[in-house]
Design a protein that fits this description.
209 residues; alpha/beta; Rossmann fold; Zot_N
Length: 209
């Protein structure tokens, strides 16, 4: 699973669940000896904030990474991207799989996200909140098959609140992309070079170390 989206109405705990899931996946991976770096477009605890397209180089350098995108309906909206950026946004999102990077998105409704992003989403988690706690329903977005459900009781959620996993009042940032062809050419060249070095992939018969 490389692209997961969390949807739900206002106050249903989308950002909270995304933050919990990111830290949980990191913790589980670390127990197996896998180093995971967190990135986000909001103030997520122990994460690097994605501010500029050059921050993708840090993603490429990481052994494995998780990137959390809050307010995805705004961030992944082609009207918010430059005309040039629209053409490479999906390419960047698709390339994250090669970088061993998991993308987690949060939005009120998956239908509000750009269609090119919807095409690569694998699992959708629908959130519902009541007086007892948070209900999560997992669905395979491509096949529409219901996968499972989970529940986090309110008392447990209150304990998690105290961990201050993220800043509720921070502004979200956009999806950083090169603004023109020159930047894009340099971007792809450097991103590929960093990735190959990390993986020890040979280029032209020479092993990059």
């Amino acid at each position: 699973m490389h692209h997961l989206l969390i949807q739900g109405g206002l106050g249903t705990g989308k950002t909270l669940m995304m933050s919990i899931l990111a830290h949980y996946l990191k913790e589980q991976a670390m127990k197996q000896g896998i180093n995971v770096e967190l990135f986000s477009n909001y103030d997520l605890k122990e994460s690097t904030t994605m501010l500029d397209y050059t921050d993708w180089y840090k993603v490429a350098e990481a052994d494995t990474s998780i990137i959390c995108w809050d307010e995805a309906q705004v961030v992944f909206n082609n009207r918010a991207w430059s005309k040039f950026g629209q053409g490479i946004a999906t390419e960047v999102a698709m390339y994250t799989r090669k970088l061993r990077s998991i993308q987690i998105y949060a939005t009120p409704n998956v239908g509000n996200v750009d269609s090119r992003i919807r095409d690569i989403i694998e699992v959708v988690v629908t959130m519902r909140k009541d007086n007892k706690g948070y209900h999560l329903y997992f669905t395979d977005f491509q096949t529409k098959e219901f996968l499972k459900k989970a529940f986090i009781p309110e008392w447990q959620a209150k304990r998690i609140y105290k961990l201050s996993l993220y800043d509720t009042y921070s502004f979200v940032r956009g999806f950083p992309l090169p603004a023109n062809e020159r930047q894009a050419n340099e971007f792809w060249e450097k991103l590929d070079r960093i990735h190959r070095k990390k993986m020890g992939i040979s280029t032209g018969g020479i092993l990059i170390e």
